[in-house]
Amino acid sequence: MNAPALIGVDWGSSSFRAYLMAGDGAVLDRIAAAEGVASISPREFPSAFRRLLGAWLAQHPALPVLASGMVGSRNGWREAPYVKCPADPRAIAHNLVAVETDGRRVLIVPGLSYEDENGRPDVMRGEEVEILGIADAGARLVVLPGSHCKWAVVEDGRVARFKTFVTGELFAAIREHTLIGAFARAAAPEPLGPPFALGVRRGASAARGEDGDGLIGALFSARSLPLTGKLAEADAGEYLSGLVIGAEIAEARRLFPDERAHIAGANALVERYRTAFAALGEVASAAPPRAAARGLFVIARQAGLLS
């Protein structure tokens, strides 16, 4: 059996995931817990770290520990300043930030920042590890759906540029807190089908400025269509989801026009995005699994943590 060589931690806002990894990158064991950074006060990180990883720490006292995600934010254990894009694994590894607890050193991965040609800044923290893991498998355009969806281009092993879209957060806010989201709020989850595809196409058209409508105007159709009987009330949630995802894809394609998208995340969300791409006549690929583990291994290798 492969001997353990690294403890990799993906510690986000809402969840904790850890990987016990061999020297060739194979994942030997995993830990998952719903103890994200948002639920832990700054003083509690050492005790949470010991509680979550205690067995591994005791069994493998000499293994390096590498942690990514919001644990390195200003609300985390210790802030790891952003590295400017373009950034490769070596630059990221060069800017690891160390914390110590009970004589154990934990190295925290910095996030990335990018400023577009108009001087608008963008940031990510945690996603850079997933992107590097997916790029290590050969992808160039990586899409990471979520509350803040990231589109990133990797060139010559470097994260060259990226853009954040607040698609998931916008959908949740509209559905839960607005009048136009009332039908979607009452609708039970439905299988992906024609209402979702219709929303995708209309959202994309709105984002492109076609049909004399923009996204702000198109969003009201999530209310007007059910009210006038042109869309079943039960389909309003999938239609609204399609609207915002379709708009995201159309906006992103102006910035990232050519490469095939590789999508990473929870299976249901990956399939939702692949279905949306298909509704617009595109084929998108599911990224390899365990992207965060693979990316942590790439950074650990560049940092000289693996013997």
Structure write-up:
The protein is an alpha/beta fold and 307 residues long. It folds into two domains: 4-137 and 290-302, Nucleotidyltransferase, domain 5 (2-Layer Sandwich); 167-286, Nucleotidyltransferase, domain 5 (2-Layer Sandwich). It contains eleven helices and 14 strands. The protein has helices at residues 45-59, 89-94, 127-135, 167-177, 182-186, 194-208, 215-218, 221-227, 236-255, 267-279, 291-302; strands spanning 4-11, 16-22, 27-33, 65-68, 83-84, 97-101, 104-108, 112-115, 121-124, 141-144, 149-155, 158-165, 261-263, 285-286. A six-stranded mixed sheet has the order 3-2-1-4-7-6, sandwiched between helices. It has a five-stranded mixed sheet with strand order 12-11-10-13-14, sandwiched between helices. Strands 5-8-9 form a three-stranded mixed sheet, with no helix packed on it. The longest helix is centred in the last third of the chain and has 20 residues, at 236-255. The radius of gyration is 21 Å and the shape is elongated. The two termini are 17 Å apart.
